[in-house]
Every structure is written in structure tokens, then in C-alpha cells.
Amino acid sequence: MKQTTVRHTALALGSILIGSSLLVGCSHPGEDVRVRLCKDLVAVQLGTDQLSWTHVDTRTAGYDDATISLRWSGVAGDGSAFCAYPYNAVDDTAQQLADPLSAYATSPSEVIINGDTLSGRALANAIAQAMQRQGRALIDAASNALSE
């Protein structure tokens, strides 16, 4: 009896996680994970979610880093950021033709926010905080979906 309850609980939890990932994945349809991470890095470093994104530019340059440039307006003023993602593909694929950013790493090698460069330990900490922020958003989306 106890094993059946554990199985049902695991199944229910798995369904919730899959459903919530779909919800979060749909919360920014068409937005690449690299753009989302760059935005989240900015929000974490500035300590605010009250940013209005005024410009987003992505560039891929062959085997060089993909770059994402952001500009925003916020309560504390306007700002800009730059995130660089290293090329990370083994072979050229049709997927890369359809989605050029898919050939690049999902974690940035360089981040510059309002002229300040995050590197080494600071960049690793910022990425960890941004990932925690995304995890909280996933849990909140799952909670909201369950309560509706």
C-alpha cells in the first residue's frame, strides 16, 4: 500500500513539473534562453524586476561569440548590458540554420552591465542567482496553475 502511494505521489509530482515547465516555457514565447538569461542577469545585478526593455539585439558571427545587447529603462534610470556566448557546436546542422543561436553555449563567457564587467567568481555567482530566480518563477507558475 505504501509503495503505491509513493508511486502516485511521484507521478503527480512529475506531472506538475512537466506541466509547469511548459507554462514557464510559454511565458516568453519566441525568446531565446540566452536572451532570457542575459535579462535575468541584469535584473539580479540591479536588484529589481522593474525594468522596461527598450532594445534587444542578438548577433551571431560564425565561430566567434554570439552577442546579446540590451537596453532598458527603470526607476533608477536607463542602462545597457552586453552578454557574450561562446560558439559551442560540433557540426553545422539544419537546426542552426533555423535557429542560429542554438550553436552557442547557454551560459555567457562575458557580461557587461552599465560598463561594469562581471568575470570569474562574480559572473559565476550572478549566473547562480539568475538560475535561482528562474527556478522560483517555475515554482510560482506551477503554484498558480494548480490554484486555478
Give structural notes.
With 148 residues, the protein is an alpha+beta fold. 49% of the residues lie in helices and 23% in strands. The protein has helices at residues 2-26, 33-46, 94-98, 120-147; strands at 51-59, 66-74, 77-85, 110-113, 116-118. The chain has a five-stranded antiparallel beta sheet. Helix 1 (2-26) packs across helix 4. The chain is globular and about 45 Å long. 18% of the residues are buried. Residues 5-27 have low confidence and may be disordered.
Highlighted features:
148 residues; alpha+beta; 5-stranded antiparallel beta sheet; globular
Low-confidence stretches: 5-27
3D shape? globular
Helix amount:
40-55%
Total number of beta strands: 5
Structural category:
alpha+beta
Q: Over all CA atoms, what is the radius of gyration?
A: 18 Å
Mean pLDDT: 83
Output the number of helix runs.
Answer: 4
In short:
The protein has 148 residues and is an alpha+beta fold.
Topology (SSEs and partners):
Blueprint: H1 2-26, H2 33-46, E1 51-59, E2 66-74, E3 77-85, H3 94-98, E4 110-113, E5 116-118, H4 120-147
Antiparallel strand pairs: 1-2, 2-3, 3-4, 4-5
Helix pairs in contact: 1-4, 2-4
